[in-house]
Write a structure and sequence with these properties.
The complex is a heterotetramer of chains A (about 290), B (about 160), C (about 280) and D (about 450). Chain A contains ten helices and 14 strands. Chain A has about 290 residues and is an alpha/beta fold. In chain A, the strands form three sheets. In chain A, strands 6-7-8-3-9-10 form a six-stranded mixed beta sheet. A four-stranded antiparallel beta sheet of chain A has the order 2-1-4-5. In chain A, helix 3 packs across helix 4. The longest helix of chain A is centred in the middle third of the chain and has 16 residues, at about 160-175. The mean pLDDT of chain A is about 85. Chain B contains five helices and seven strands; from the N terminus they run αββααββββαβα. Chain B has helices at about 1-25, 75-80, 85, 130-140, 145-150; strands spanning about 60, 65-70, 90-95, 100-105, 110, 125, 145. Chain B starts with a helix and ends in a 10-residue tail after the last helix. With about 280 residues, chain C is mostly helical. Chain C has one domain. Chain C has helices at about 5-20, 25-50, 60-90, 90-95, 105-135, 140-170, 175-200, 205-215, 215-230, 235-245, 250-275. The longest helix of chain C has about 35 residues, at about 105-135. The radius of gyration of chain C is 20 Å and the shape is globular. Chain D is an alpha/beta fold and about 450 residues long. In chain D, strands 1-4-7-10-13-16-19-22-25-28-31-34-37 form a 13-stranded parallel beta sheet. A 13-stranded parallel beta sheet of chain D has the order 2-5-8-11-14-17-20-23-26-29-32-35-38, with no helix packed on it. The longest helix of chain D has 23 residues, at about 420-445. Chain D is globular and about 85 Å long. Chain D has one domain: Pectate Lyase C-like, CATH 2.160.20. Classes of the chains: A alpha/beta (about 290), B alpha+beta (about 160), C mainly alpha (about 280), D alpha/beta (about 450).
Chain lengths: ~290, ~160, ~280, ~450
C-alpha cells in the first residue's frame, strides 16, 4: 500500500490557482524531492499534504484522509518548515516537552530526542537564542517525535551555512537508511543528488515530470556544455583562491560575491576539494548552466 | 470571497429581523380599554403619590394617546380643573368601589361621603348602577351624584368633619 | 500508537496560552491598571462615606462600573485579536497545525487559556477592591459583589471571543488589532452615542429605546450590573422602570443568556473562518 | 429572699389564673381617676375603656384581640395605658381594625408593645394625646396596600408622638391635625414613612424613616418645621426621601437624606404667594437625584446644604433653570462635584458652582435617556462638553460662593453601618484564586 496518495489536488487562493490537478503516490522508504522555481507550488503542496490548508481533491496517508481525519493523518507525519518558528517564551526543554505531549508522548521522550540532535546541553536555553543550525536540528528532533513514517521538509537547509547543511544532510541520509520516507522541497541540485531517489518537477502548479535525479541532471546540465561554478569566499581570500585555481588549469574570474569557475560536469566538485584542502573557507557554492 | 458575501446577507437578515421586532414593539392602536395601572408602582399624575388601591383609582386617555393615572377620584377632578383642554375630549375611567371593574366616568354613579376615607381624603367613590350607589349613600350617610355634576362644581376639598 | 484525547490536547494548549499570556506585556499592563484603578476608585468612593458616616451607590460606585465597561472589553478584544493573528504572522500557527491537532482544539485551547488568564487578572482587581470595601464597610453585599464579578467575567469572555473572531477572519495582526480597537470604540462609545442621536432625531419610544440598547452587549452588562447592585433599575429612568416592570428579576438570567450568546456566536463564526483559512 | 421569690411566683400564678373577664370587671369597679395595676396575664380583647383611669401593666400583661376587631378602644378622656402587650387585631381595612383606637382627648399611650395588628394606634378626633415609646409591628405577610397605618391621626390636634418604633405597616398618617409634635420616632419597612396632610403648625424632628417606599410626603400644610430627620434607603418605584406638595412656610433644616431614589421632591411648594420655604444645612447624599423640582421652586432658599455624590445633584423636570427672579436662591452649599478653588482661604470657592451637565440637560428634557446613565459614552460626552463650551447648556442653577467643605450637622442619628466580614472572605477568595493561578502558571515551567 502506498504511504502517500495524492489525487487530483487543486488549490486556489482567491482567483489564482497554485496547484492544478496534481496526482502522485509515494511508497514507503522512498525519498522524493520537489523541484521547481519559486512560486511553482512546492510549499503549498507540502501544506496540503499536512492538511493545514483546505483544498480540492484527495490526499491520503496510509489511507487516512488528511482533510477529514487530519489529526490521525498528521500523527504519521513529521514536518520541518522552511523557517522554523518556535514559541519565544519557551526554552528548548519546554518546547520538546510541549510537542511531545501534543503527540500524546511522555515529555521525557521529547528530551531524549534532543540527545539525538546534540541539543541536550541546552535544555534551559530560550529557543529564541538558538543559532539557525541548532533550530533546524531541534525542528528535526521534534519532527521525529512519535516515530512518524513520513517526513515532510520544506527547503530545510535554506537558512543554514555550508557546514550545518552537510550535517543536516547526513542526518537525513541516516533516517532514510533507517526506513523513513522523505518528501522534501529544495532548489539545490546537490541535495537532490545526495538524497533523492525520485524527483517531482513542478512548474506553475503542474506536475511537469516524475523523474530521477540523473534525469534531472541531464535536463539541467547537458553533458556537452560547460558549467559555471559560483563560489562564495571571504573577500580577502579571493585573489589567493583565483591564483590557486589558475595553477590547476581552471578558467577563473571574480564577480560581486566571490568567483566563478568554468567546469565540466565530471569535474565540478574538484575546485571545491582543491580549495578546501588549501585551507580556504568556502561559504557557499552554486552550479549554473 | 464567497464567505464574505454570505456574511453580508446574514447581516441583512439580522437587520430585517430587528426591524420586525421593533415594529412589534410599537404601541397597539388606541383601544377602548382604560390605561393599565401598575398598582404599588405608578404614581398619581396629580398628587404624585403611589397608586396602591384599585377601588379608588381613576384614569384618562387624551385623544393623542397620552395617559394619566390617579389614586383618588378627587385628584382626577382637580387635574381636569387644571387642564380644561383635556376635560372635554379625554376618555375617562373610574374604578368600581366594590368590584374589580372599570366604568366610563360618564356612565358611573358616584357617592360622596365624609365617612369614606379615600387615599387623598376626598371621599368620592364610583359604582356601576344607581341601586348600589343609593344603598351605599344611605349606609355611609353620603350623597349620590353623577360625573357631570362633580365636574361642574368647584374641585372638591378634602372632607372635613362637621 | 498513543492517542491524545481532545481534552488533553485542549488543556495542554490552554496551559501554553496561559503561560504565554502571563508573559505578555499587554496583559500584565491591563492587570496592573485594572487592579490599581479598581482599588483607587473604591478608596475614593468610600473616603466620602467614611468621613460622613454615610455610604451609598454614588457617582463613584458608578465609575467602578464605568471602569469595567472601559477596560474589560479592551483587554478581551486586544488579547483575542492578537491570539491567532500574531501566531500566524510568526509562523508558529502553521507549525502547531502541522501537529496532530485540529483547528477546533487550537481555538478552544486559546480561548480557555486566555479566559483563565483574564479571570485571574480580574480576580486580583476584584479581590483587592473587595477586601478594601469589606474593611471600610461598603454598601455592597457579597452576593452583589460576586454577581458583578461573574458578569464581568462574562463581559471579558464575550469581548475575548469577538477578538478571536477578528483574529481568525483577518490575516494580519495589524488589521485584526485595528478592527478590534474599532469594535471597542463602537461598543463603548459610538454605539451609545449613535443610539442617543437617533433617539433624539426620531423620537422613539421608551420601549424601543430599551430594545435597541440591548443590541449593545455593554448595555446588557450595565443593566444587569445595576440591577444586581441596586435591586432595581430606577436609576435608569423610565426605560429602566419599563424593563423592571416587564421582566423584573428575570432580567438577570435574560441578560446572562444574551451575554453568553454574544460569546458563542462570534466563536462559531471564528471557528468557521479558521477552518476555511487554515494556517494562512 | 425566699418569700420574695415565692411572692412573685404567686402573683404570677394568680395573674395567670385570673379569669379573663377580670380586667373588665376591675375596670367597672374602680372610680374615675383611679389607677389599676395589672401584673402579667393574658386577657382577651376587646377591652373598652369608658372611664378616665390609669392602666399600668407590669410584667407585660397581654391583651389579645384573637384576630377579631379592634383590641383596645378608649372612649374616655385622660386615660393612661402603659406597659401592655396588645396583639392580634382583626384584618378589616374598612372597619379600621386597630391595636388601640382612641376617641377621646388627653389620652396617654406609653411603653406598650403592639404586635400583629392591622392599624396600630388610631386617634380619631382625639386632641392633646400623647403616644410615647411604643413599639408597633404590623403583619409583614400582608401586601403593603392591604396593611393598615401603624400610627394614624385624624382630626386630632396637639398630639405628642415621641420615641415610637414602627415596622411592617402601611403608612404613618397625620391628617387634619394642628400642632403635632412628631419626635424621635423610627419608622421602617412601610409604604409612606409619613403621610402628612392638612396639618398646620407642626414640628417633625429627629425621626428616622428607613427602608420605606417613600420617606415622608408633606402635603397641603403650612408652618411646618422639619428638622434633623434621617431619611435613608427609601427606594422603590417612584420613591423619594421627602416630598413637598403645596406646602407653605416650611423650615427644612439639618435633615440627612441618604440613598433614596430622589432626595427632596418639590411640587408646587410654596403655593401661597407670600409663603417661603427654607432648606438649610441639609445633607443630601448618594441619591439617584438629590433635589428634584417640578418647574421652579420659587421663593425658596437653599443655604448651607451639602450635596454629596448624588448621581444627578439637582433636577428640574422639563429643563430650564432655577430663577432668582422667582425668588429661588442657592447659596453657600457644598457640592461634591465642584471643581473650583479657594485662593483666599475663606472657606468658599472663588468660582461660582454651575450645575451644568450635558447629560442632565438631556435627561431633564427626555427622562428616557437616563437609560444611558453610567455609560462611558456619556462620560465622553461630558468631557467633550467641557472641552468645547459651545455645546454647553445653560446652567440649572448658580451658587456664587459654594462651600469648600461639607457642613455636617452634629447629633443626627447615624446611618447604620454594616460590617462586611463575608465580603472580606469573598475578596480574599478571589485574590487567592487570581494570585494562585498566575503564581502557579508562572512558577511551574511548561514541562
Amino acid at each position: 500500500m502506498a504511504l502517500l496518495t495524492i489525487e487530483h489536488l487543486t488549490k486556489r487562493f482567491g482567483t489564482t490557482t497554485v496547484l492544478v490537478d496534481f496526482s502522485c503516490t509515494i511508497e514507503p522508504g522512498e525519498s522524493v524531492a520537489l523541484w521547481g522555481p519559486n512560486g511553482a507550488g512546492k510549499t503549498t503542496l507540502l501544506r496540503c499534504v499536512l492538511g493545514v490548508l483546505p483544498f480540492e481533491g484527495i490526499i491520503q496517508i496510509k489511507g487516512i484522509d488528511v482533510q477529514r481525519q487530519g489529526k490521525q493523518a498528521r500523527r504519521l507525519v513529521g514536518f520541518v518548515p522552511q523557517e522554523v518558528a518556535f514559541y519565544p517564551t519557551l526554552t528548548v526543554g519546554e518546547t520538546a516537552a510541549f510537542f511531545a505531549r501534543l503527540r500524546g508522548l511522555d515529555p521525557e521522550e521529547g528530551r531524549r530526542r534532543l540527545v539525538q540532535v546534540a541539543l541536550q546541553d541546552r535544555l534551559d536555553q530560550p529557543v529564541g537564542t538558538l543559532s539557525g543550525g541548532q533550530r533546524q536540528r531541534l525542528a528535526l528532533a521534534l519532527a521525529l517525535l512519535g516515530d512518524p513514517p513520513l517526513l515532510l521538509l520544506d527547503e530545510p537547509t535554506s537558512s543554514l551555512d555550508i557546514r550545518s547543511r552537510a550535517e543536516f544532510m547526513d542526518a537525513l541520509q541516516k533516517l532514510l537508511a533507517a526506513g523513513k520516507t522523505l518528501l522534501f522541497s529544495t532548489h539545490r541540485f546537490e541535495e537532490v543528488e545526495h538524497l533523492a531517489r525520485r524527483v517531482l518537477l513542478l512548474e506553475n502548479g503542474h506536475l511537469e515530470a516524475d523523474t530521477t535525479p540523473a534525469a534531472l541532471a541531464r535536463r539541467l546540465f547537458p553533458e556537452t556544455s560547460q558549467y559555471r561554478l559560483r563560489l562564495h569566499l571571504p573577500e580577502r581570500q579571493r585573489p589567493e583562491a583565483v591564483k590557486t585555481l589558475q595553477t590547476h588549469g581552471f578558467e577563473v574570474w571574480m564577480n560581486g560575491h566571490g568567483l566563478e569557475v568554468r567546469v565540466s560536469l565530471n569535474e565540478k566538485a574538484r575546485p571545491l576539494t582543491l580549495l578546501s584542502r588549501a585551507g580556504f573557507e568556502i561559504i557557499d557554492f552554486e552550479l549554473h548552466a | 470571497m464567497t464567505m464574505r458575501k454570505h456574511h453580508l446577507s446574514s447581516l441583512s437578515y439580522y437587520v430585517f429581523g430587528l426591524l420586525l421586532l421593533l415594529s412589534a414593539c410599537r404601541p397597539a392602536p388606541m383601544s377602548d380599554r382604560p390605561p393599565i395601572i401598575r398598582f404599588g408602582y405608578d404614581t398619581c399624575d396629580y398628587c404624585r403619590m403611589l397608586i396602591s388601591e384599585p377601588r379608588y383609582a381613576a384614569t384618562l386617555r387624551t385623544p393623542d394617546g397620552q395617559e394619566r393615572r390617579f389614586d383618588d377620584i378627587g385628584c382626577l377632578l382637580h387635574y381636569l380643573h387644571e387642564h380644561p383642554e383635556e376635560a372635554d375630549v379625554a376618555y375617562i375611567w373610574v374604578h368600581d368601589y366594590l368590584q374589580d371593574r372599570w366604568h366610563r366616568a360618564s356612565q358611573a354613579f358616584f357617592v360622596r361621603s365624609d365617612r369614606l376615607i379615600t387615599p387623598m381624603g376626598y371621599g368620592i367613590i364610583a359604582t356601576a348602577d344607581t341601586l348600589t350607589a343609593d344603598s351605599l349613600a344611605r349606609t355611609l350617610g353620603g350623597t349620590l351624584t353623577r360625573f357631570a355634576m362633580l365636574q361642574a362644581a368647584p374641585p372638591p376639598s378634602s372632607i372635613r368633619l362637621p | 500508537m498513543t492517542t491524545t484525547t481532545v481534552r488533553a490536547t485542549v488543556s495542554l494548549l490552554a496551559r501554553k496560552e496561559l503561560h504565554d499570556a502571563l508573559r505578555n506585556r499587554w496583559f500584565v499592563l491591563y492587570t496592573v491598571v485594572f487592579a490599581v484603578l479598581a482599588l483607587a476608585l473604591s478608596w475614593i468612593g468610600l473616603a466620602g462615606g467614611q468621613l460622613y458616616g454615610l455610604a451609598g451607590f454614588g457617582r463613584t460606585t458608578a465609575s467602578l462600573i464605568n471602569l469595567i465597561m472601559l477596560i474589560v472589553p479592551l483587554m478581551g478584544l486586544t488579547l483575542g485579536a492578537l491570539s491567532l493573528a500574531l501566531e500566524r504572522e510568526q509562523g508558529t500557527l502553521l507549525y502547531i497545525l502541522a501537529q496532530p491537532v485540529v483547528p477546533g482544539e487550537v481555538l478552544l485551547g486559546k480561548l480557555l487559556g486566555l479566559a483563565i488568564a483574564l479571570t485571574a487578572a480580574l480576580s486580583i482587581g476584584f479581590g483587592l477592591s473587595g477586601l478594601l470595601l469589606a474593611w471600610r464597610g461598603s454598601p455592597i453585599g457579597l452576593g452583589a459583589y460576586l454577581g458583578l464579578f461573574g458578569l464581568t467575567i462574562l463581559l471579558a469572555l464575550l469581548s475575548l471571543s469577538l477578538g478571536i473572531l477578528f483574529s481568525s477572519a483577518l490575516p494580519r495582526t495589524a488589521t485584526a488589532l485595528g478592527s478590534a480597537l474599532f469594535a471597542w470604540l463602537l461598543l463603548v462609545f459610538l454605539g451609545d452615542l449613535g443610539l442617543l442621536g437617533s433617539a433624539l432625531a426620531l423620537r422613539i419610544s421608551v420601549e424601543q429605546l430599551f430594545t435597541f440598547s440591548l443590541l449593545n452587549p455593554l448595555q446588557v452588562f450595565k443593566v444587569a450590573a445595576i440591577l444586581l447592585l441596586r435591586s432595581d433599575l430606577q436609576v435608569l429612568g423610565p426605560a429602566g422602570q419599563y424593563a423592571m416592570h416587564l421582566y423584573g428579576w428575570r432580567l438577570l438570567p435574560l441578560s446572562t443568556s444574551v451575554l453568553l450568546l454574544w460569546t458563542l456566536i462570534p466563536l462559531i463564526l471564528a471557528y468557521l473562518f479558521f477552518r476555511r483559512r487554515g494556517a494562512l | 429572699m425566699g418569700t420574695g421569690v415565692l411572692a412573685v411566683l404567686l402573683t404570677t400564678l394568680v395573674a395567670q389564673a385570673q379569669p379573663t373577664s377580670l380586667l373588665s370587671e376591675r375596670l367597672a369597679a374602680v372610680a374615675p381617676g383611679d389607677t389599676i395595676r395589672v401584673v402579667g396575664g393574658i386577657y382577651p380583647g376587646p377591652l373598652r375603656i369608658t372611664k378616665p383611669v390609669v392602666l399600668l401593666g407590669e410584667q407585660a400583661p397581654v391583651i389579645d384581640g384573637r384576630g377579631q376587631g379592634t383590641v383596645v378602644i378608649i372612649e374616655a378622656p385622660d386615660v393612661v395605658l402603659q406597659g401592655f402587650v396588645i396583639r392580634n387585631s382583626g384584618r378589616s381595612l374598612d372597619r379600621e381594625n386597630a391595636g388601640i383606637a382612641v376617641h377621646a382627648d388627653r389620652v396617654t399611650i406609653a411603653d406598650n408593645r403592639i404586635e400583629n395588628v392591622l392599624f396600630g394606634i388610631y386617634l380619631r378626633q382625639a386632641d392633646s394625646c400623647r403616644i410615647l415609646r411604643n413599639t408597633i409591628e404590623g403583619d409583614p405577610t400582608l401586601d403593603t396596600p392591604r396593611r393598615g397605618d401603624l400610627i394614624r391621626l385624624w382630626y386630632s390636634n396637639n398630639a405628642l408622638i415621641q420615641d415610637n418604633t414602627t415596622r411592617y405597616g402601611r403608612d404613618v398618617v397625620i391628617w387634619f391635625a394642628r400642632g403635632i409634635v412628631l419626635r424621635g420616632n423610627t419608622i421602617q419597612f412601610g409604604r409612606y414613612g409619613l403621610h402628612f396632610m392638612y396639618s398646620d403648625s407642626s414640628r417633625i424632628e429627629r425621626n428616622r424613616m428607613l427602608h420605606n417606599s417613600v420617606g415622608a410626603y408633606l402635603m397641603y400644610s403650612t408652618r411646618l418645621t422639619f428638622r434633623r430627620n434621617l431619611l435613608a434607603y427609601n427606594r422603590h418605584a417612584s420613591a423619594i426621601g421627602v416630598g413637598l406638595k403645596d406646602m407653605d412656610e416650611v423650615t427644612f433644616e439639618e435633615n440627612v437624606l441618604v440613598d433614596n431614589q430622589i432626595g427632596i421632591f418639590i411640587d408646587n411648594s410654596p403655593r401661597a404667594i407670600d409663603a417661603q420655604i427654607r432648606y438649610l444645612g441639609n445633607v443630601v447624599a448618594y441619591n439617584d437625584i438629590g433635589v428634584q423640582a417640578l418647574q421652579d421652586a420659587p421663593r425658596s432658599i437653599f443655604r448651607d446644604n451639602s450635596l454629596l455624590e448624588n448621581y444627578e445633584q439637582v433636577d428640574l423636570v422639563g429643563g430650564g433653570r432655577f430663577s432668582e427672579a422667582n425668588g429661588t436662591f442657592w447659596e453657600r452649599n457644598y457640592w461634591s462635584d465642584y471643581r473650583g478653588y479657594d485662593a483666599d482661604r475663606d472657606g468658599y470657592g472663588d468660582v461660582p458652582y454651575r450645575a451644568v451637565a450635558l447629560f442632565d440637560a438631556l435627561t431633564d428634557r427626555t427622562p428616557a435617556f437616563r437609560l444611558f446613565a453610567f455609560s462611558p459614552a456619556v462620560q465622553a460626552l461630558e468631557l467633550a462638553a467641557r472641552a468645547f463650551p459651545v455645546i454647553r447648556p445653560e446652567p440649572k442653577l448658580i451658587d456664587v460662593a459654594p462651600r469648600m467643605q461639607p457642613l455636617l450637622p452634629e447629633g443626627i442619628p447615624a446611618v447604620p453601618r454594616r460590617p462586611r466580614p463575608v465580603l472580606a472572605l469573598g475578596g480574599l477568595a478571589l485574590l487567592l484564586i487570581g494570585g494562585l493561578t498566575i503564581g502557579s502558571a508562572r512558577l511551574r515551567r511548561l514541562r
